[in-house]
Amino acid sequence: MPKPYTSPYEILNEGNTSRFLLICDHASNAIPDDYAQLGLPAHELERHVAWDIGAAEMTRYLADTLGCPAILSGFSRLLIDPNRGLDDPTLIMKLSDGSIIPGNLDVDQHNNKSAWQDRVSKFYMPYHLAIASALDKSLSDGQVPIILSVHSFTPNFKGEDRPWSSAVLWDKDDRLAKHLFTALSKSEKLVGNNQPYSGRLKNDCLYRHGTENGLPHALIELRQDCLMRDVDCQYWVPFLANALTTAETDPICAERKFLGSYTENNFKNCIENQ
Q1: Phi, psi (5° rounding) for residue 77?
Q2: Closest residue by Cα to residue 46 from 99, 2, 93
Q3: Cα–Cα–Cα angle for 163, 234, 236, nearest 5°?
Q4: What are the tens digits of pLDDT across the range 170-190?
Q5: Does some domain include residue 3?
Q6: 4 lies in a domain?
Q7: Could you please report the per-residue DSSP string of 125-145?
Q8: Dist CA 207 CA 25 (whole Å)
Q9: Per-residue confidence band for 111, with pLDDT thresholds at 50, 70 and 90
Q10: Of 19, 62, 139, 233, which residue is the least packed, with the fewest Cβ within 10 Å?
Q11: Count: domains in the chain
């Protein structure tokens, strides 16, 4: 069953002075009652289209091990996807992996802006403001935060098996990604490099909070069948914790570096080649 909705976000270990900040954009499949499940039956909200299965549990285990703050979304990405920019056409999905989302069909910035703005104000912005506040607190304390975003992906998509057990997504800033690759290579499982998704998405969550702030950051994807039980989640904790603690001692992760994004270069090249 879908989780009951209580808040747009949840904070673990709030006030902890750790340099690490874990975020989980798709932690919940909760939808407030007044949205009537977006017209979907309950079983659709249990699918990956509504949330990243296992990602919240993974985030909790890692935050508990490191004793660091973590911010988890409290709403389904079908309401609005916090890992998209406000200008992204997939911000409020109308069709996701074969499922039509009836409650989203007439909600967009141009045709029904009041409903669109309602979701931005109630869910999207509070989540992002919570992340920004945590980062500002760390920076004001003289620390350069290290951000890890935790996601999960399906074992099979559109009839194709995905062989990667884990994947590291990154853009131009590879400072944390390097440590994740080193640590995960010891797992003896296949690690994807910007596969099955790319970490180069303009205005996504890490672009907003990592790239634009010059902070070391990366996104970890774990295959959902590798997160089904507590013991499965616990398997990954030592590898991820090692990557973060190693990054913490790396001098280049102690600086703010405004390295930009490959998406900016791609846009510039498109303009220059027109």
Answers
A1: -70, -10
A2: 2
A3: 40
A4: 999 999 999 999 999 999 999
A5: no
A6: no
A7: HHHHHHHHHHHHHHHHTT---
A8: 13
A9: confident
A10: 139
A11: 1
* Residue carrying structure tokens 């490959």: 262
Domain that residue 120 falls in: 9-272
What pTM was computed for the model?
A: 0.95
Residue 40 lies inside a defined structural domain of this protein: yes
Q: What is the pLDDT of residues 16-55, one digit of tens each?
A: 999 999 999 999 999 999 999 999 999 999 999 999 999 9
What DSSP letter does each residue of 187-256 carry, written as one string?
GTS-EEES-SS-S--TT-HHIIIIITTT--EEEEEEEGGGSSSHHHHHHHHHHHHHHHHHHHT-GGGGS-
Answer yes or no: is 169 within a domain: yes
For the chain, what percentages of helix, strand and coil (3-state, to nearest 5) are there?
Answer: 40, 15, 45
Q: Can you tell me which residue has the tokens 């709403």? A: 75
- CA 17/CA 76 separation, integer angstroms: 29
* β pairing state of 20-24 and 146-153: parallel
5: which DSSP letter?
Answer: P
Tell me if residue 162 falls in helix, strand or coil: coil
CATH number at residue 45: 3.40.630.40
Indicate the residue type of 18. S
Tell me the C-alpha distance between 93 and 47, whole Å.
14
The one-letter amino acid at 6: T
**Average pLDDT over the chain, rounded to whole?**
94
